């Protein structure tokens, strides 16, 4: 079979590139400032409804899909490149569910994540990680020389379930061997498998019908028998394919040899199964409930005399129920044109009504857009009802008596992922950020003491460390001497090196030049006066007889 309507897909977004901690160097300047670039964002895995896809078969054979990671930032403030997105085409009508189930267990659908019902609909299944900031972006007026950069975030990784709910205009339902597949083949160019035994149709068959000005699709839904809701036959495995249809056509076999069956009882039995299935559905907005969709009765196999007679007999009974009835034969094509035009007109009216309803809904819908869209809002897991800065501190204890404090929240968890714990200055920067957010105060109020274990993150994906509220980051060290607070360097401080780090103006250069020339003139005048007084004129004369370091050894020459 080349038709697959449910697959489990493992998707992973690309990792963000690490930031660079570069230092710009210029001639005559020991340190010209940080110039590390930012890392590139990772690519995302995106699902897109495409009319070129008609099955999920490709994802059954290749269930692991990953996007490209971003590259690392470089020196000279060169940012890394963004990883390429991976766009996965899926058929229109694909619904995305969260996969539930432990490791090694079969996955089952959980919360619905997206409904790709129209061509062009997109859903980001796995978002790429954000690239880390370089030290040039981390520099500010206070922290002028950061000696670290932030790491890129890992891309999102999870399992999802794709479930195809075919979008057809008319759904053909009926007992096995009632002629549904034959009707699809007779009215369209589809070539489904047809045989004279039950459950020949194991997968839905779709066909496109062209009847004059009308063009619509019909779907053959297999496996519907009384008790299907309890798992009999093929169960309700394929009934999801009629959830998006507009018309339900009952194809009834009038030439059946089973004594306990007749067209009226067949209709009521199938309607009972549809009602049980409809109670379980949560249809999206704009979709007509199954119970309210128009019904059409198709009495098939009129080429058999006994079947023709039975069809003519039960037709008035169906019409009394307010149902449109058509007597056809897929062998001789009797009544197919009448049925085709009638279905086309019905579908056309329903489409016009739905379009008007959607247009009216769009006009009534009020869209409120905030003035600002913080970058944090685009991250999955952000709760719109809470602030991005919210966090929670909980005291937890194991059965063995071990106690720790768990910190969860969007910002703390992200900051931990971005920290290079091999760099003392980066660890100190993390401590500053957590303290400014109020994490340390919350730990104190929760009863934490210095030395207690603190875990930041959910579940087993956490970073643990011993809490030290007085932690100080390693400032940049030169020759073993601390030259300033964290993120500062005295070589960048104005006036700390005699003005070498300050670019002088032309006026300052002229002033310094004149001061230097005046000083030289003063020195020359002082030396001239000393020569005029006879100082150092004769090396044989000791100016200071008590000077033991004198040339004459600290005594007068005889």
TrEMBL record:
The keyword Magnesium applies. Transmembrane segments: none annotated. CDD domains: Obg. Residues 543-558 have a biased composition (Basic and acidic residues). One of its GO terms (molecular function) is magnesium ion binding. Its EC number is 3.6.5.-. One of its GO terms (cellular component) is cytoplasm. Mg(2+) binds at residues 181, 201. Its cofactor is Mg(2+). Pfam families: DUF1967 (PF09269), GTP1_OBG (PF01018), MMR_HSR1 (PF01926). Residues 13-46, 491-513, 537-558 are annotated as: Disordered. GTP binds at residues 174-181, 199-203, 220-223, 300-303, 329-331. InterPro entries: G_OBG, GTP-bd, GTP-bd_Obg/CgtA, GTP-bd_prot_GTP1/OBG_C_sf, GTP1-OBG_CS, GTP1_OBG_dom, GTP1_OBG_dom_sf, OBG_GTPase. Its main location: cytoplasm. Residues 1-167 form the Obg domain. It is found in: Cytoplasm. Keywords: Cytoplasm, GTP-binding, Hydrolase, Magnesium, Metal-binding, Nucleotide-binding. Residues 383-469 form the OCT domain. One of its GO terms (biological process) is ribosome biogenesis. Residues 168-348 form the OBG-type G domain. An essential GTPase which binds GTP, GDP and possibly (p)ppGpp with moderate affinity, with high nucleotide exchange rates and a fairly low GTP hydrolysis rate. Plays a role in control of the cell cycle, stress response, ribosome biogenesis and in those bacteria that undergo differentiation, in morphogenesis control. HAMAP family: GTPase_Obg. Monomer. Belongs to the TRAFAC class OBG-HflX-like GTPase superfamily. OBG GTPase family. This is GTPase Obg. It comes from Bifidobacterium bombi DSM 19703. The lineage of its organism: Bacteria, Bacillati, Actinomycetota, Actinomycetes, Bifidobacteriales. The gene is obg.
